[in-house]
Amino acid sequence: MNASPFTLLVIPGDGIGREVVPAAVSVLRATSLPLRFVEADAGWECFRRCGEALPSPTLETARAADAVLFGAVASPSHPVAGYRSPIVRLRRELDLYANIRPVFADPPTADDPHARRVDLVVVRENTEGLYAGRERVEDGGATAIAERVITRRASERIVRVAFDLARARCAARNANDAPPAKVTIVHKANVLRETCGLFRTVALEVAQAYPDVRAEEMLVDTCALQLATRPERFDVLVTTNLFGDILSDVACAWGGGLGLASSANLGERYALFEPVHGAAPDIAGKGIANPLAAIGCAALLLDYLARRAPPDVAPDILAWSARIQRAIRHVRAVGPHTPDLGGNAATAEVTEAVIAHILTS
Question: With 50 as the cut, is the pLDDT of residue 4 above it?
Answer without folding.
Answer: yes
